[in-house]
Amino acid sequence: xxxxxxxxxxxxxxxxxxxxxxxxxxxxxxxxxxxxxxxxxxxxxxxxxxxxxxxxxxxxxxxxxxxxxxxxxxxxxxxxxxxxxxxxxxxxxxxxxxxxxxxxxxxxxxxxxxxxxxxxxxxxxxxxxxxxxxxxxxxxxx
Length: 142
Description:
Elements: E1 8-11, E2 18-21, H1 33-41, H2 53-86, H3 90-99, H4 107-119, H5 125-141
Antiparallel strand pairs: 1-2
Protein name: SIL1 factor
Keywords: Endoplasmic reticulum, Protein transport, Transport
GO cellular component, one term: endoplasmic reticulum
């Protein structure tokens, strides 16, 4: 849609519509440069003969691309919100497990303990072998 020069154009994020508004003028007088230029040039010609079919097709294609991009952004945002609702932060989980007297350890903490067990002189050969097998599992995940 053609709009006069100097109009205020915005995208309404709630409805997805583009809105245009003529600038406010005090006492009915227009004193902005754009409004003076608009008076000098006259109204915008929206006669169908003034646009070629190629120009209209290009404009329509741009509008469709913009709509697709806007939909992708909004759908991505909605997906992120739903994913965040499904999962909780690790700090919150740790607090809840502490209330249940269950200690939750990260993979890093477990690997540090296994390395300590392997390097310990008090560990038996079977414990060191078991530590190596467990370490292999955690390292494979990383």
